[in-house]
Amino acid sequence: MIVERAGDLLQDDAQALVNPVNTVGVMGKGLALQFRRAHPENFEAYAKACAEKRVRPGEVFPVPVEAGRWILNFPTKRHWRSTSRLEDIEAGLDDLVRLSGELGLVTIAVPPLGCGHGGLPWPTVRSLINEKLGELDAEIRLYPPEPL
Question: Annotated catalytic residue: which of 29, 48, 53, 77?
């Protein structure tokens, strides 16, 4: 089930929070920067994994942050300077479905993947999220883009 939420995704009590990242180890803008500040232990694990080439498009990098809770680092961009690619979002959503079952996730907070600094159109990404995550046995808490 997908429910739309407003507000600060980082304050959500979901079992897993999705963090939009690149694959080069930089969390310098947007929501990723907020994650870096709020969860430095996640940033350290992510940066190390990037240096070891273990963060790749289409593959979610999970980091446990406290008992039973996860940050799911979701590559939305290959490089922080690049724009997002819809095929990377689609492949990442497929991996998120796999990981959700593997980790037994029941609530997942999801931002507008690739729609901020990534430049993808929200209606297209929303449709893809609905298609890929709508049938999960988990509550997806979707945070649409904030109005300008």
Answer: 77
Domain assignment present for residue 12? The answer is yes
Report yes or no on 21 lying in a domain.
Answer: yes
| Reported confidence tier of residue 81, pLDDT bands at 50, 70, 90 | confident
The upper half-sphere exposure of residue 84, i.e. CA atoms within 13 Å in the direction of its Cβ, equals 27
Asked if residue 102 is part of any domain, the answer here is yes
Q: What is the per-residue pLDDT across 101-121, written as a single tens digit (0 to 9) for each?
A: 999 999 999 999 999 888 999
Judge whether 77 counts as a catalytic residue: yes
